[in-house]
Design goal:
There is one protein chain. The protein is of the alpha+beta class and 334 residues long. The protein has two domains: 106 residues, Alpha-Beta Plaits, CATH 3.30.70.1150; 201 residues, Mannitol-specific EII, Chain A (3-Layer(aba) Sandwich), CATH 3.40.930.10. Strands 1, 2, 3, 4, 5 and 6 form a six-stranded antiparallel β-sheet that branches. Strands 7, 8, 9, 10, 11 and 12 form a six-stranded mixed β-sheet that branches. A hairpin with a 2-residue loop joins strand 8 and strand 9. It is globular and about 50 Å long. It starts with a strand and ends with a helix.
């Protein structure tokens, strides 16, 4: 449910200092928890808001992602920032655009949680920006999967097809399901972001029959909206690709870190690149949330850096997915 901005300010009702004091009282530890919230504003306010965040929260780790809402002149901002800074950010936003609509403030978990995924999926389903297209694409997608599962032509989509094993691919695949050994690149040598996108695009072309130029354009256009660096040496470049039948992912570990305009200013060496179909908003958010959950765990990052080959990387992602599945089962039983 979206709240008017004034309503959200009423819910916060605390200064930055009071937020920190309350967090300490509740948790008994130093504040450092990040939160996520979605804000819908007129597109013209995006740049001023980003500049205000840079000016007012420049010493904090924050990320602002922008998704245009089709045929509306408005955009949805996905804002990740320290919990203690929410009040300041909302105050600045209210000065720029009082008619902003702000969604629920959600704490990003330290470890994977079923509730977090459910919330991200519900948010995507409630977006409503492409419901008719989504329904059509979902029905057509399995008919066109080929060569590991990506491209679908109009003829293939329109043709009647018998059920196949590919129809069993989950609508919301986990990151582990999208990362077989052939999708893992270790010690990748690139000098900058442009070279990285070129290398990733050629690999995606080999894996899923999408032209490298199309992939490069998708990754570059998304990056132009704001860096996909998450901080802690991690980036998740991603793009929507028309006629893609299902999500595709690559994990790349760079031989040398490269600059990525990450919110913490640090270069990146861990890359999770995602391509998703135009209709797959829910799967897109689901996967981005899973990447964030994985890499916010420093123990997971340390274990990942210890993996000496692609098979070890796959075992790590699969082991984490298995533990999360078991945890969901335990929660259902309690």
């Amino acid at each position: 449910m979206a709240h008017p901005l004034a309503g959200l300010r009423a819910l916060i009702k605390r200064s930055r200092a009071e937020n920190r004091a309350e967090h300490l009282t509740r948790s008994g530890r130093e504040p450092g928890r990040n939160v996520m919230l979605h804000v819908t504003v007129d597109a013209q306010h995006t740049t001023p808001f980003r500049e205000a965040l840079i000016r007012d929260c420049g010493n904090q780790q924050w990320t602002l992602r922008v998704a245009p809402l089709r045929d509306s002149g408005r955009v949805r901002l996905s804002l990740y920032l320290p919990k203690a800074d929410v009040g300041d950010a909302m105050h600045r936003l209210s000065q720029l655009t009082p008619d902003a609509e702000v969604g629920q403030v959600v704490e990003i978990p330290d470890a994977p949680s079923d509730a977090w995924r459910s919330l991200m999926q519900a948010d995507a389903q409630g977006n409503g920006s492409r419901p008719k297209q989504a329904a059509t694409r979902r029905a057509d997608a399995p008919a066109g999967q080929r060569n590991g599962g990506s491209r679908v032509t109009a003829a293939q989509a329109g043709a009647a097809a018998e059920p196949s094993i590919e129809t069993l691919i989950p609508a919301q695949p986990s990151l582990a399901q999208l990362l077989p050994a052939s999708h893992v690149l270790l010690s990748l040598r690139v000098d900058d972001r442009e070279q990285l996108f070129t290398q990733l695009s050629h690999t995606f072309e080999t894996l899923c029959d999408v032209p490298a130029g199309t992939v490069t354009a998708g990754l570059t256009s998304r990056e132009a909206l704001g860096s996909t660096g998450l901080g802690q040496g991690v980036a998740v470049p991603h793009g929507h690709i028309e006629d893609l039948a299902r999500p595709v992912a690559i994990y790349a570990r760079l031989a040398e870190p490269i600059a990525f305009d990450a919110p913490d200013g640090q270069p990146v060496s861990d890359i999770v690149a995602l391509l998703v179909p135009q209709w797959a908003d829910s799967a897109h958010l689901h996967l981005l949330a899973e990447v964030a959950e994985c890499f916010c765990d420093h123990q997971f990052r340390d274990r990942l850096h210890e993996c000496a080959d692609a098979d070890a990387v796959c075992r790590l992602f699969n082991g984490r997915a298995t533990l999360e599945h078991a945890a969901r089962g335990d929660r259902r039983l309690t």
